[in-house]
Structures are given as structure tokens and as C-alpha cells.
Amino acid sequence: MNLINGETSTASGQSRNGASSSWEEKRLVKPSTPTRKPQPPKPENAITIAVSSRVLFNMEREQQIYERQGMEEYLKYQLEHESEPFSPGPAFSFVKALEAVNSRLRELYPESEELFDVVLVTNNHAYVGLRLINTINHHHLLIERFCMTGGNSPIGYLKAYHTNLYLSADSAKVREALEEGIAAATMFTPDKMKEVSESQLRVAFDGDAVLFSDESERIFKAHGLDKFFEHEKAHENKPLDHGPLKGFLEVLGKLQRKFFGKGLRMDCPIRTYLVTARSAASSGTRALKTLRSWGLEIDEALFLAGAPKGPMLEKIRPHIFFDDQMFHVEGAAELGTVACHVPYGIAQRLAKK
To answer: In this structure, are residues 23 and 97 in contact, taking their beta carbons and an 8 Å threshold?
Structure first.
């Protein structure tokens, strides 16, 4: 799995447009516009998830045409294949799970606009917009807001959409979003994605440099494991500063409490996980106390003491997993988890060196 010049590959480097895919049959569909869809919430009330077209759908073939043959051939190909839907990409199941949560929320709170709102954000030319619309309708996705920037970076529009999370295949755009204070991650495509729940949204987070700042990570990188343990013990009653994904966990918790308020704690369609390389006895106290000080709950906490995360994630089967270190992202993807890299903190500077 790699990401070179913004192009997404599978964990083995092979294209996901292989001959084995049933989508190679390219079933033609007639453009359609469903007449009955729930109205999207107002942006200021919604939890806005911005996804790029290349993570929502599999656009590897189109990306290759653009990179090898240029923009004009790319636009020509898109127009010629306008009635052919794209197959699902790595973010597809995540988006469907968001819609399942919205359905439950609308049943319990018919007048509330505290809902997920998915915005398709792409630097594609508006010329290819019809194929994207046809694909969304073909898959019965409830996406009404588009942002097609015609080759320009879409990052400037994210704040206008009140974006709570931005997912892209382009690591440069993700870094740009993080620099603007927007929670963002680079999404990768496993060779073979595991089946995930259709009724419960499962989100797994790493701790340091994802939910928390990289303060403790800096100690570990500079002085080693023993000093890290000493530092965490000495500061266990001092909350860690927030990391780039803290805000997303906050909005998930806010929606969870709406279900808890209806007596549905054990039947909540949102479940969150902390999957960290920290040891429980040696450094777990500070992590849990930090979450408590923020008023945040996490449903399950897994302290792995340096063990690989992939096997545990394979059991959890989250729709999405966030980590700041690529070897954890790669290990998760190799076992079928849709993993996202958060390029934040000291680990990124060391990786560049």
C-alpha cells in the first residue's frame, strides 16, 4: 500500500480495478434523480463529513488516465462513461454507516438537525459532475452537497462547510487541512476490505498525536521508553493537550448521548474505540484521565503495550481507523481494515528525516 503523488494504491501496490472485480462488467445505468430524499440539515447544525470522490468511489482507472494522458483525455473518458457508475471506494461503508445513524436519529428526534451531513469535495471539473451524481443515485446515497473546484484545491471551502472531518486520498491536501485546524486524514484502500456492520458505526482512534497531542510521543522519541514511563507517571494527573481528531470524537459523543437519553446505551448505533500502543499499567492512566477531564467517553479501550494493532482491529471491524504512524496504518490495511493516516506530530518529522 502506498500513496505517491496523491495516487492511492492497495496494500500490495496492485490496482483495485483488477479483472477479478465484478464491477469490470460496468453495468450501465440510466441517469436518475430520486424524488424523495430527506432534506440535509443546515451546515451550522450538522456534523459535516467532507469526503473526496477518490475515497468515496474507486476512480483508479480515471486517475491513471489523468496522470498519463492529461486533463483533456481524462475529461473525454469521463464524458464517454457518464452513465457507468463508479464502484465503491474505501469510504463507502463509512458513509453508509453515517446514513444508518441518521435514520435512527430521525426516528427519535424528528425535528432535530443534529445529523451527519456528507459533502462530496473534489478538485474535479464540473464537467464530470453528472457521472458523480449518477453514481450517487445508483448507490442510493443521501449526498446533496457537492464542491467541484475544477483543478483548484478545495481546502479553502472546508471551513465554509463547517467541516468536522475531511477524508482524502491526497496527503498534501490532508496536511493543508490540518494546518487550517480541520480534522483530516489520508485514507488508504486495503487489498480486500473486511465486511463491517450495516447498523452500527464503529470508529477506532489511536491516542497520541491523534486524539491527544504529541507531547508524550516527543518524550519517547527523544529519551526512550523508560523516560516516557517516568514522564507519564509524574504527569498522570495533568491532562494531555488535544490532538487533531479530538473534535471528531466530541461530536460522536454528543450524538451518542442523544441515544443514551432514550435508554439506548446498549443499543447505540455509534461505538468508539481507543486502540493505543501504550501500556495500561505504565501509561494508560493519563490517557483515560485526559478523556475524563474532557468529558468524553470511549466505549472500548485497548492498551496493546507495543503489540501490532492489525489483529485487534480485524476483530473490531471498524468502518474507519485513525493513526499517526504509517506502519500501524499499513498493518491494519493488510488485514482488511480501512485505515487513515493522520500526518501530525513528531513522528512525521522523524519519518521525513
So the answer is: no
Query: How many Cβ atoms sit within 10 Å of the Cβ of residue 39?
Result: 8
- The pLDDT score that the predictor gives to residue 16 is 42
Catalytic option among 117, 170, 206, 214: 206
Average pLDDT of 249-266? 97
Count of all residues that appear for the chain in the document: 353
> pTM higher than 0.90, yes or no?
no
Euclidean distance between CA atoms 256 and 259, whole angstroms: 5
**Residue 170: active-site member:** no
Per the structure block, which three cell numbers stand in for 188? 488508504
What cell does 151 get? 483543478
Residue 62 grid cell: 480515471
The three-point CA angle 284-287-292 to 5° equals 125
* SS3 category, 298: coil
**Under 8 Å CB-to-CB from 170, ≥6 apart: which residues?**
6, 52, 54, 186
Which of 233, 240, 236, 239 lies closest to 215, judged by CA? Answer: 240
Report DSSP state, residue 283: I
From 210, 324, 231, select the one nearest 286 (Cα to Cα): 231
Q: How far apart are CA 309 and CA 325, in angstroms?
A: 11
Task: Give the long-range contacts of residues 134-141, CB within 8 A, separation 24 or more.
Answer: 134/29, 134/31, 134/32, 134/82, 134/83, 134/85, 135/57, 135/85, 135/86, 137/31, 137/32, 137/33, 137/34, 138/29, 138/32, 138/85, 139/85, 139/88, 139/92, 140/34, 141/95, 141/96, 141/99
HEC profile of 232-246: HHHCCCCCCCECCCH
pLDDT of residue 9: 41
The C-alpha R_g of the chain, in whole angstroms, comes to 20
**Residues in contact with 353: Cβ distance below 8 Å, sequence separation at least 6, in sequence order:** none
Q: Can you give the pLDDT at residue 150?
A: 84
